[in-house]
Amino acid sequence: MNNVDRYVRAATRDNTRRSYRSAIEHFEANWGGFLPATADSVARYLADHAESHSVNTLKHRLAALAQWHLDQGFPDPTKAPLVKKVLKGIKELHPEQEKQAKPLQLEQLSQLVRWLDQELHEACERDDRKSMLVYSRNRALILLGFWRGFRSDELTRLTVEHIQVLPGEGMALYLPRSKADRQNQGRVYKAPALSRLCPVDAYVDWIHVANLTEGPVFRRIDRWGQMADQAINPNSVITLLRKIFKDANLPNPDEYSSHSLRRGFATWANANQWDIKSLMEYVGWKDMKSAMRYVEGSDPYARQRIESGLQ
User: Model's pTM, two decimal places?
Assistant: First the structure.
Protein backbone atom coordinates (compact mmCIF):
# COMPACT_ATOMS: atom_id res chain seq x y z
CA MET A 1 0.00 0.00 0.00
CA ASN A 2 1.51 3.32 -1.08
CA ASN A 3 1.22 6.53 0.95
CA VAL A 4 -1.72 7.87 -1.09
CA ASP A 5 -3.73 4.69 -0.55
CA ARG A 6 -2.83 4.69 3.14
CA TYR A 7 -4.12 8.22 3.67
CA VAL A 8 -7.24 7.62 1.57
CA ARG A 9 -7.99 4.57 3.69
CA ALA A 10 -7.45 6.54 6.89
CA ALA A 11 -10.01 9.13 5.74
CA THR A 12 -12.82 6.60 6.26
CA ARG A 13 -13.47 5.09 9.67
CA ASP A 14 -13.09 1.32 10.02
CA ASN A 15 -16.69 0.80 11.12
CA THR A 16 -17.99 2.84 8.21
CA ARG A 17 -15.79 0.95 5.78
CA ARG A 18 -17.01 -2.42 7.05
CA SER A 19 -20.67 -1.44 7.03
CA TYR A 20 -20.42 0.02 3.52
CA ARG A 21 -18.70 -3.13 2.28
CA SER A 22 -21.49 -5.21 3.79
CA ALA A 23 -24.11 -3.01 2.11
CA ILE A 24 -22.43 -3.39 -1.29
CA GLU A 25 -22.26 -7.17 -0.84
CA HIS A 26 -25.97 -7.20 -0.02
CA PHE A 27 -26.77 -5.27 -3.21
CA GLU A 28 -24.62 -7.53 -5.39
CA ALA A 29 -24.65 -11.00 -3.83
CA ASN A 30 -27.97 -11.09 -1.97
CA TRP A 31 -30.10 -9.12 -4.39
CA GLY A 32 -28.21 -9.75 -7.62
CA GLY A 33 -27.50 -6.16 -8.58
CA PHE A 34 -24.73 -5.06 -10.91
CA LEU A 35 -22.19 -2.29 -10.41
CA PRO A 36 -22.02 0.38 -11.64
CA ALA A 37 -25.75 0.58 -10.97
CA THR A 38 -28.47 2.49 -12.77
CA ALA A 39 -31.11 4.64 -11.12
CA ASP A 40 -33.73 2.10 -12.19
CA SER A 41 -31.92 -0.82 -10.50
CA VAL A 42 -31.40 1.15 -7.30
CA ALA A 43 -35.10 2.11 -7.26
CA ARG A 44 -36.10 -1.55 -7.72
CA TYR A 45 -33.68 -2.55 -4.94
CA LEU A 46 -35.36 -0.09 -2.58
CA ALA A 47 -38.84 -1.27 -3.54
CA ASP A 48 -37.93 -4.94 -3.04
CA HIS A 49 -36.73 -4.25 0.51
CA ALA A 50 -39.26 -1.61 1.54
CA GLU A 51 -41.26 -3.97 3.76
CA SER A 52 -38.34 -5.88 5.27
CA HIS A 53 -35.88 -3.05 5.99
CA SER A 54 -36.22 0.16 7.96
CA VAL A 55 -35.93 3.51 6.21
CA ASN A 56 -32.68 4.18 8.07
CA THR A 57 -31.24 0.90 6.80
CA LEU A 58 -32.24 1.76 3.23
CA LYS A 59 -30.65 5.20 3.60
CA HIS A 60 -27.45 3.54 4.79
CA ARG A 61 -27.47 1.22 1.75
CA LEU A 62 -27.91 4.24 -0.52
CA ALA A 63 -25.00 6.00 1.16
CA ALA A 64 -22.81 2.95 0.57
CA LEU A 65 -23.81 2.76 -3.10
CA ALA A 66 -23.23 6.49 -3.54
CA GLN A 67 -19.74 6.22 -2.00
CA TRP A 68 -18.82 3.26 -4.20
CA HIS A 69 -19.77 5.14 -7.37
CA LEU A 70 -17.91 8.27 -6.29
CA ASP A 71 -14.79 6.27 -5.41
CA GLN A 72 -14.84 4.51 -8.78
CA GLY A 73 -15.48 7.70 -10.77
CA PHE A 74 -19.03 6.81 -11.90
CA PRO A 75 -22.13 9.02 -11.75
CA ASP A 76 -24.08 8.58 -8.52
CA PRO A 77 -27.42 6.88 -9.34
CA THR A 78 -28.79 7.41 -5.82
CA LYS A 79 -29.28 11.12 -6.54
CA ALA A 80 -31.65 10.47 -9.44
CA PRO A 81 -35.21 11.85 -9.06
CA LEU A 82 -36.65 8.33 -9.43
CA VAL A 83 -34.66 7.01 -6.47
CA LYS A 84 -35.64 9.99 -4.31
CA LYS A 85 -39.33 9.56 -5.16
CA VAL A 86 -39.28 5.85 -4.36
CA LEU A 87 -37.65 6.52 -0.99
CA LYS A 88 -40.23 9.22 -0.26
CA GLY A 89 -43.02 6.81 -1.17
CA ILE A 90 -41.59 4.16 1.16
CA LYS A 91 -41.60 6.66 4.03
CA GLU A 92 -45.23 7.47 3.22
CA LEU A 93 -46.49 3.89 2.98
CA HIS A 94 -44.28 2.39 5.70
CA PRO A 95 -44.04 5.01 8.47
CA GLU A 96 -42.10 3.96 11.51
CA GLN A 97 -41.49 5.41 14.93
CA GLU A 98 -37.86 6.10 15.67
CA LYS A 99 -36.59 3.81 18.41
CA GLN A 100 -34.62 5.42 21.20
CA ALA A 101 -32.63 3.86 23.99
CA LYS A 102 -34.13 4.02 27.45
CA PRO A 103 -32.28 6.65 29.52
CA LEU A 104 -30.42 5.43 32.59
CA GLN A 105 -31.78 7.40 35.53
CA LEU A 106 -29.61 8.51 38.45
CA GLU A 107 -31.43 6.13 40.81
CA GLN A 108 -30.65 3.21 38.51
CA LEU A 109 -27.05 4.36 38.16
CA SER A 110 -26.78 4.34 41.96
CA GLN A 111 -28.22 0.82 42.09
CA LEU A 112 -25.73 -0.36 39.48
CA VAL A 113 -22.75 1.12 41.30
CA ARG A 114 -23.86 -0.29 44.66
CA TRP A 115 -24.09 -3.73 43.08
CA LEU A 116 -20.71 -3.38 41.37
CA ASP A 117 -19.11 -2.17 44.62
CA GLN A 118 -20.50 -5.16 46.48
CA GLU A 119 -19.32 -7.62 43.83
CA LEU A 120 -15.91 -5.97 43.75
CA HIS A 121 -15.61 -6.15 47.54
CA GLU A 122 -16.43 -9.86 47.54
CA ALA A 123 -13.98 -10.50 44.69
CA CYS A 124 -11.21 -8.79 46.67
CA GLU A 125 -11.99 -10.89 49.75
CA ARG A 126 -11.61 -14.14 47.83
CA ASP A 127 -8.67 -12.79 45.83
CA ASP A 128 -10.50 -13.36 42.52
CA ARG A 129 -8.30 -11.47 40.08
CA LYS A 130 -10.57 -11.89 37.05
CA SER A 131 -13.67 -10.62 38.86
CA MET A 132 -11.73 -7.71 40.32
CA LEU A 133 -10.72 -6.65 36.81
CA VAL A 134 -14.20 -7.08 35.34
CA TYR A 135 -16.14 -5.22 38.04
CA SER A 136 -13.58 -2.43 38.34
CA ARG A 137 -13.54 -1.90 34.58
CA ASN A 138 -17.33 -1.97 34.30
CA ARG A 139 -17.78 0.55 37.12
CA ALA A 140 -15.33 2.98 35.50
CA LEU A 141 -16.89 2.53 32.06
CA ILE A 142 -20.44 3.18 33.29
CA LEU A 143 -19.61 6.17 35.50
CA LEU A 144 -17.38 7.81 32.92
CA GLY A 145 -19.86 7.08 30.14
CA PHE A 146 -22.71 8.60 32.15
CA TRP A 147 -21.10 11.74 33.55
CA ARG A 148 -19.37 12.60 30.28
CA GLY A 149 -22.25 11.55 28.03
CA PHE A 150 -19.83 9.50 25.94
CA ARG A 151 -20.79 7.34 22.98
CA SER A 152 -19.50 3.78 22.84
CA ASP A 153 -16.91 4.70 20.21
CA GLU A 154 -15.61 7.52 22.43
CA LEU A 155 -15.30 5.23 25.44
CA THR A 156 -13.38 2.66 23.43
CA ARG A 157 -11.02 5.27 21.94
CA LEU A 158 -9.82 6.54 25.33
CA THR A 159 -6.13 5.89 26.03
CA VAL A 160 -4.25 6.16 29.31
CA GLU A 161 -1.57 8.48 27.92
CA HIS A 162 -4.24 10.98 26.84
CA ILE A 163 -5.83 11.27 30.29
CA GLN A 164 -4.67 13.55 33.07
CA VAL A 165 -6.07 13.33 36.60
CA LEU A 166 -6.00 16.15 39.13
CA PRO A 167 -6.93 14.52 42.48
CA GLY A 168 -9.91 16.13 44.15
CA GLU A 169 -10.65 18.28 41.09
CA GLY A 170 -11.29 16.19 38.02
CA MET A 171 -9.77 14.68 34.91
CA ALA A 172 -9.04 15.81 31.35
CA LEU A 173 -9.56 13.30 28.55
CA TYR A 174 -8.20 13.99 25.09
CA LEU A 175 -9.82 12.26 22.12
CA PRO A 176 -7.89 12.71 18.84
CA ARG A 177 -11.04 11.78 16.92
CA SER A 178 -14.59 10.57 17.41
CA LYS A 179 -17.79 10.00 15.46
CA ALA A 180 -18.88 13.61 16.01
CA ASP A 181 -15.45 15.02 15.13
CA ARG A 182 -15.71 14.84 11.35
CA GLN A 183 -12.61 16.98 10.79
CA ASN A 184 -10.44 14.95 13.21
CA GLN A 185 -9.52 18.10 15.11
CA GLY A 186 -9.52 16.37 18.48
CA ARG A 187 -11.05 17.64 21.70
CA VAL A 188 -10.33 17.67 25.42
CA TYR A 189 -13.25 16.56 27.60
CA LYS A 190 -13.27 17.27 31.33
CA ALA A 191 -14.98 15.19 33.99
CA PRO A 192 -15.41 16.36 37.60
CA ALA A 193 -14.43 14.63 40.82
CA LEU A 194 -17.72 14.05 42.66
CA SER A 195 -18.70 13.36 46.26
CA ARG A 196 -20.41 10.14 45.16
CA LEU A 197 -20.70 8.09 41.97
CA CYS A 198 -17.35 9.62 41.07
CA PRO A 199 -15.99 8.87 37.58
CA VAL A 200 -12.50 10.04 38.53
CA ASP A 201 -12.17 7.67 41.49
CA ALA A 202 -13.59 4.82 39.41
CA TYR A 203 -11.06 5.47 36.64
CA VAL A 204 -8.12 5.68 39.04
CA ASP A 205 -9.20 2.47 40.79
CA TRP A 206 -9.46 0.66 37.45
CA ILE A 207 -6.07 1.84 36.24
CA HIS A 208 -4.53 0.72 39.54
CA VAL A 209 -6.18 -2.71 39.55
CA ALA A 210 -5.32 -3.34 35.89
CA ASN A 211 -1.83 -1.83 36.27
CA LEU A 212 -2.25 0.20 33.08
CA THR A 213 0.31 2.80 32.09
CA GLU A 214 -0.48 3.22 28.39
CA GLY A 215 -2.80 2.07 25.64
CA PRO A 216 -6.59 1.65 25.60
CA VAL A 217 -8.39 2.29 28.86
CA PHE A 218 -11.25 -0.18 28.43
CA ARG A 219 -10.14 -3.63 27.25
CA ARG A 220 -11.64 -7.06 26.76
CA ILE A 221 -11.09 -9.55 29.57
CA ASP A 222 -11.39 -13.22 28.63
CA ARG A 223 -12.81 -16.08 30.70
CA TRP A 224 -9.41 -16.81 32.21
CA GLY A 225 -8.93 -13.24 33.39
CA GLN A 226 -6.43 -12.34 30.68
CA MET A 227 -6.69 -8.71 29.58
CA ALA A 228 -6.30 -7.90 25.89
CA ASP A 229 -3.96 -5.23 24.54
CA GLN A 230 -6.71 -3.89 22.28
CA ALA A 231 -9.75 -1.85 23.25
CA ILE A 232 -13.24 -3.29 23.55
CA ASN A 233 -15.01 -3.30 20.18
CA PRO A 234 -17.53 -0.42 20.14
CA ASN A 235 -20.20 -2.79 18.79
CA SER A 236 -19.87 -5.01 21.87
CA VAL A 237 -20.58 -2.23 24.39
CA ILE A 238 -24.37 -2.69 24.11
CA THR A 239 -24.10 -6.39 24.89
CA LEU A 240 -21.75 -5.69 27.78
CA LEU A 241 -24.01 -3.06 29.33
CA ARG A 242 -27.14 -5.18 29.02
CA LYS A 243 -25.40 -8.06 30.77
CA ILE A 244 -24.32 -5.75 33.60
CA PHE A 245 -27.84 -4.33 33.92
CA LYS A 246 -29.33 -7.83 33.94
CA ASP A 247 -26.87 -9.10 36.56
CA ALA A 248 -27.66 -6.06 38.73
CA ASN A 249 -31.41 -6.85 38.46
CA LEU A 250 -32.39 -3.69 36.63
CA PRO A 251 -35.87 -4.14 35.09
CA ASN A 252 -36.03 -4.71 31.33
CA PRO A 253 -32.27 -4.66 30.66
CA ASP A 254 -32.77 -5.24 26.93
CA GLU A 255 -34.38 -1.80 26.60
CA TYR A 256 -31.02 -0.16 27.29
CA SER A 257 -28.11 0.47 24.93
CA SER A 258 -24.85 2.40 24.98
CA HIS A 259 -26.90 5.54 24.23
CA SER A 260 -28.69 5.02 27.56
CA LEU A 261 -25.72 6.55 29.37
CA ARG A 262 -25.73 9.61 27.09
CA ARG A 263 -29.51 10.02 27.25
CA GLY A 264 -29.46 9.45 30.99
CA PHE A 265 -27.00 12.26 31.59
CA ALA A 266 -28.85 14.62 29.23
CA THR A 267 -32.13 13.88 31.02
CA TRP A 268 -30.53 14.41 34.43
CA ALA A 269 -28.91 17.69 33.34
CA ASN A 270 -32.16 18.96 31.86
CA ALA A 271 -34.05 18.12 35.06
CA ASN A 272 -31.41 20.04 37.05
CA GLN A 273 -31.86 23.26 35.07
CA TRP A 274 -28.89 23.04 32.72
CA ASP A 275 -29.59 25.40 29.86
CA ILE A 276 -29.48 23.78 26.44
CA LYS A 277 -26.39 25.74 25.35
CA SER A 278 -24.35 24.49 28.32
CA LEU A 279 -25.56 20.93 27.76
CA MET A 280 -24.65 21.04 24.07
CA GLU A 281 -21.16 22.38 24.82
CA TYR A 282 -20.55 19.81 27.56
CA VAL A 283 -21.68 16.77 25.57
CA GLY A 284 -20.45 17.99 22.18
CA TRP A 285 -23.65 18.35 20.15
CA LYS A 286 -23.38 20.64 17.16
CA ASP A 287 -27.05 21.44 16.65
CA MET A 288 -30.23 21.77 18.69
CA LYS A 289 -31.99 18.91 16.91
CA SER A 290 -29.33 16.41 17.96
CA ALA A 291 -29.50 17.56 21.57
CA MET A 292 -33.29 17.42 21.83
CA ARG A 293 -33.34 13.83 20.58
CA TYR A 294 -31.53 12.80 23.75
CA VAL A 295 -33.29 14.92 26.35
CA GLU A 296 -36.11 13.22 28.24
CA GLY A 297 -38.18 15.96 29.88
CA SER A 298 -39.07 15.82 33.58
CA ASP A 299 -42.77 16.12 32.62
CA PRO A 300 -42.96 14.11 29.35
CA TYR A 301 -46.78 13.96 29.24
CA ALA A 302 -47.18 17.64 30.31
CA ARG A 303 -49.36 16.35 33.14
CA GLN A 304 -47.95 18.65 35.82
CA ARG A 305 -48.28 21.75 33.67
CA ILE A 306 -51.86 20.95 32.66
CA GLU A 307 -52.91 19.96 36.19
CA SER A 308 -51.50 23.23 37.57
CA GLY A 309 -53.72 25.10 35.14
CA LEU A 310 -56.78 23.04 36.12
CA GLN A 311 -56.27 23.94 39.77
Answer: 0.74
